[in-house]
Amino acid sequence: MDAVFSLAPVDVPRVETPHRRIVTPIPAPGTAEIMARIGRVESSSALSQLPVIWDRAEGYNIFDPWGNIWIDFTSTIFVTNCGHAHPHLIEAIRVQSEKLLHSYCYPTEIRVRYLEKLIATTPTNLTKASLFSTGTEASERAIKLMRLYGRTLDPVRKIIVGWDGNFHGKTMGAQMAGGLHDQKAWIGYQDPNMVHLPFPYPWVVEKSNMSGAEIFNHHMDGLAEKGVDTDLIAGFIVETYQGWGGIFYPRDYVAAMREWATKRGALLAFDEMQAGFGRTGRLFGYQHYGIDADLVICGKGVSGSVPLSVVLGRGDLIDLDPAYTSTHGGHPIACAAGLANLEILEAENLVEESRRKGELTRERIHRWKARFPKRIGRILGDGLLWGVFITKEGAADDLDIAFCDSIIGRALQKGVFSIKTGRGTLKLGPPLTIPDEALLEGLDVIEESIAELVAEG
Ligand code: PLP
């Protein structure tokens, strides 16, 4: 695979502030060589990412080996919510690693300390959990639990409902439940008991003249018309917001879904991989909808660092499969990290900080829109998760992927590292610990990048 961004170093102005430093051409000389070596030995998505060699990261900064320092607007894709290499996290990992480096699913004290803290911190209807390593495993787990539950009601009740465009991971079940249909050809068939609803994008809702609740019910009628026996729905797997654009469902749409599911004994599992652990200014993103979840699928920010994923749920659901095992699930280091992560979130009030900094961010991004009305469309998100739609000149929902990527590339040259969605949206997700000054400086860099590129035509 070839690198997606140009690897030819470009001379750029030197940058030196308390928050970022650029002292070489960008990509830094040396970057191309390491990326070429990766390409020779790995079929890696590393090559589709921004050309920065991550050498070290601390707080809200990423360091390459050549003296450049970026403000991180990715949290390494929503993992390091509590900041890179938080000292409390490092200490917890150090202490645990000196004691016990692996434990399979044998009982350990760190495991129960972590789980007790997790259950105490999360909504009260979530009383038990299972532990895994990757997000996609946790999605698979939620699917299995929903089906096991369906079978307790009716031996043939096993339909899982997902949404077009949603993502739950790249193993087979998670991918089938997800709605990125063009990526599933390799599977060769679709489980007829995994079905999808159209996603209620804001532009669809606006044109429909229907409330969110009416749209949900209309889409459910559509499923039935396609021959799906909706009485056999075991559960819904819901990505809390669609990742590429920070696109939430209408609140009354989710309320209608909750009502539908509760009436018929179906379950709601929220995929909080990106949304969880304070990202959107609530502990879990689904809490914005004002409803309860039956299962919550967590990964990424759950540990702020090492591989850990969790399915949290009502105790009766988690207990449906007590014999599950996962060799590295509940790894002692992951449990130590998960516990330290919760302690940091609490001690530093990071959920509230995310909400507060989100308001600062919202205000800045709306200022960009006022300045570049032809190039900025929708601004979606909450807390420290934002999707900014970069449009073709004045075309509200027609996204300009090339222009968006050029903004990301220009910001990179100036010391801000952001997420490349490849969809025409700027997706912003800094660590929740980022100081206000660094956050605002990073946002100003993006504004400056847009201004330059607009002026260059
Ligand atoms: N679900 C969502 C919403 C995600 O964003 C991701 C990863 O990006 C996953 C599931 C899969 O997680 P993992 O890559 O840890 O398997």
Structural class: alpha/beta
Q: Strand order within the widest sheet?
A: 6-14-13-12-9-7-8
What's the shape? globular
If helices are DSSP runs of H or I spanning 4 or more residues, what is the number of helices?
Answer: 14
Search tags:
457 residues, alpha/beta, seven-stranded mixed sheet, four-stranded mixed sheet, 19 strands, 16% strand, globular, binds pyridoxal-5'-phosphate
Structure description:
With 457 residues, the chain is of the alpha/beta class. Helices cover 39% and strands 16% of the residues. The chain contains 14 helices and 19 strands. It has helices at 31-41, 75-78, 87-99, 109-121, 135-153, 172-177, 202-208, 212-225, 251-264, 315-318, 332-347, 350-371, 401-413, 436-456; strands at 15-16, 21-22, 56-58, 61-63, 69-72, 128-132, 159-163, 194-197, 233-239, 241-242, 247-248, 267-271, 295-298, 309-313, 376-382, 385-390, 416-417, 419-420, 425-428. The strands form 5 sheets. The protein has a 7-stranded mixed β-sheet with strand order 6-14-13-12-9-7-8, with helices on both faces. Strands 3-4-5-17 form a 4-stranded mixed β-sheet. The protein has a 4-stranded antiparallel β-sheet with strand order 15-16-19-18. Helix 3 (87-99) runs antiparallel to helix 11 and helix 4 packs parallel to helix 11 (332-347). The longest helix is centred in the last third of the chain and has 22 residues, at 350-371. It is globular, with a radius of gyration of 22 Å. The structure holds pyridoxal-5'-phosphate. Pyridoxal-5'-phosphate binds at residues 134-136, 139, 167-169, 239, 243, 271, 273-274, 299.
